[in-house]
Specification:
Number of strands: 7
Radius of gyration: 16 Å
Number of domains: 1
Largest sheet: 5 strands, mixed
CATH class: Alpha Beta
CATH topology: Beta Polymerase, domain 2
CATH architecture: 2-Layer Sandwich
Order of helices and strands: HEEHEEEHEEHHH
Distance between the termini: 39 Å
Number of helices: 6
Shape: globular
């Protein structure tokens, strides 16, 4: 693990923002991250959050900010040799998902019920599992998501899970 950027300080600086890290696994609690990884973030306003993140990294490392073809805001961080370090993949809606219909109210639910893990805000366990199942439907080659879902569901109320899945998506 290598960290050119103090990710812990960055997330501390955006603590008051309405965001949630989805599929949080690329960083450690001490603020290091895997070089070449990305951090997927749901938020209320991608431009506002992007501006806050940009203000934290400006002057510390080279970066590029752009809107992807899938309408996500990307902030790509590079080392001083112009080698890719880390991507912030920021979205404020689910329009990038093409294989699953997701109600806008699911974003509201995720942000309202998010939990602080001592480092960042993450989805509650049910929302996390739904997001990973959606990711699997979007990218069936990412079997790690369906394995994660199946493992987590062992300890949860399956009726509640199915009810939420039906309420917020077209997955049956």
């Amino acid at each position: 693990m290598f960290s050119m950027l103090d990710i812990y300080e960055l997330f501390d600086n955006i603590f008051e923002e309405e965001y949630c890290i989805i599929r949080p696994s690329v960083y450690n609690i001490n603020g290091t991250y895997e070089k070449g990884s990305d951090i997927d973030i749901l938020c209320r306003d991608r431009e506002e959050l992007g501006n806050k993140i940009e203000s934290c990294i400006r002057g510390n490392c080279p970066y590029k900010r752009f809107i992807s073809p899938l309408e996500k805001l990307h902030i790509d961080i590079y080392d001083f040799d112009n080698v890719f370090e880390l991507k912030f993949d920021i979205m404020d809606n689910f329009s990038s998902y093409k294989n699953v219909i997701i109600k806008d109210s699911f974003m509201d639910r995720i942000l309202r019920l998010r939990e602080f893990n001592g480092f960042v805000f993450i989805p509650n366990v049910y929302d996390d599992i739904i997001l990973r199942l959606i990711e699997f439907y979007e990218h069936p080659n990412k079997e790690k998501h369906i394995l994660y879902v199946n493992n987590k569901l062992k300890d949860l109320d399956k009726n509640l899970f199915n009810s939420l899945l039906e309420e917020f998506t077209n997955i049956r």
